[in-house]
Amino acid sequence: MSASSVLTPILGHLRAEPSRTWSLIITLYGDAVVPRGGTLWLGTLLEIFASLEIGGNVVRTAMSRLAADGWLERLRVGRNAYYRLADKGRATFADAARRIYQGGSHDWDGVLYLAVLPDGQRDAARATMEAAGYAQLAPGVMIAVARGDAANAGIIHLRADADADDARRLARQVWLPERLAAGYRRFLASFTPLRDAFAAGQTLSDLEALLARLLLVHEYRRVVLHDKLLPDALVPDEWPGLAARALCAELYPALLPGSERWLDKHALNPEGKLPPPDIALAERFRV
After folding, report:
1. Does residue 211 contact residue 7 with C-beta atoms inside 8 Å?
2. Measured between alpha carbons, how far is 12 from 16 in angstroms, rounded to an integer?
3. 263: exposed, middle or buried (C-beta count within 10 Å: 0-12, 13-18, 19+)?
4. CATH T-level topology, domain 3-103+177-283
5. pTM of the model
């Protein structure tokens, strides 16, 4: 297996999905650019995406749309354009980063939290409570494993003690749907060959390491942001989300050195080369 063929299954998975260039751009900025100052020359971005066989016109269109929608800010220096995440983009990826890199493992105190939504306001209240970590249990009733901080005067909040076995059965119905499990299994099918290739002594070029890192985080992000990240006590041993996170924790640090070398050599901002990454980068997927 050649180095380039190691990425073939991953790239094939990307190309089989509907085009989401704008989402890949946000992943690249949040994962690789923000830790190194946050600003990137458009030419560097085009070079990275050309290696994914995504054309320059597609990238420019996505960048213009992201800027128009408030995700990115553009800075012109002479004839060169540089982009950084705007406040909206930074805040959104910061929230996502906690779920992607830190996971959700925590102790469970045996309490479930119910929220009874007010009549006539259920749609708006449901969106608020979902953002706070609740899931729908029944029409007008939502449930969570931790009390959310969403404030709504019309919502009735209740606590319920739960047996661990009952809570695990409930988790399968409410928080761990098959479509989420299927997403994790697709992720595992795409990236397990990369782990196997590393175990067999295969290596990647620095650019390939950056591409693999980008796609690893992007594909994991697409699944994990739909996961409520339950406490370990409520997740079955065979839950594929556990294996997916373990795979990320193994691959991400293996891809960091090469990908960071490529950024050191090739990535530019208005001052020249990007600054070194912040120290928190090395801690990702370790907690």
Report:
1. yes
2. 6
3. buried
4. Arc Repressor Mutant, subunit A (1.10.10)
5. 0.87
> Where do the H-state alpha helices sit in the chain?
3-6, 8-16, 21-28, 42-50, 56-68, 87-97, 122-131, 164-174, 178-199, 206-224, 240-266
Q: What is the pLDDT along the chain (287 residues), one digit of tens a residue?
A: 344 567 877 777 767 666 689 999 999 999 999 999 999 999 999 999 999 989 999 999 999 999 999 999 999 999 999 999 998 888 888 888 888 998 766 678 899 999 898 887 788 788 878 877 788 899 899 998 887 665 566 788 899 998 888 888 888 888 887 889 999 999 999 999 999 999 999 999 999 999 999 999 999 999 998 888 888 888 887 889 999 999 999 999 999 999 999 999 999 999 999 999 999 999 999 86
Amino acid present at 60: R
DSSP state of 282: G
Which of 51, 48, 78 has the alpha carbon at shortest distance from 63? 48
Give the C-alpha separation, 40 to 59, whole Å. 14
At residue 277, the 3 state secondary structure works out as coil
Q: 143: how many CB neighbours lie within 10 A of its CB?
A: 22
Which residue type occupies 107? D
Per-residue CA distances from 164 to 26, 63, 167, 170 (Å): 39, 48, 5, 10
**Ramachandran assignment for 53, one of left (phi > 0), alpha (psi -120 to 50 degrees), beta (any other):** left
Paired sense of beta strands 111-116 and 80-85, if any: unpaired
CA 46/CA 49 separation, integer angstroms:
5
Q: Which residue, chain included where needed, has tokens 């090739």?
A: 266
Structure tokens at 191: 């990236």
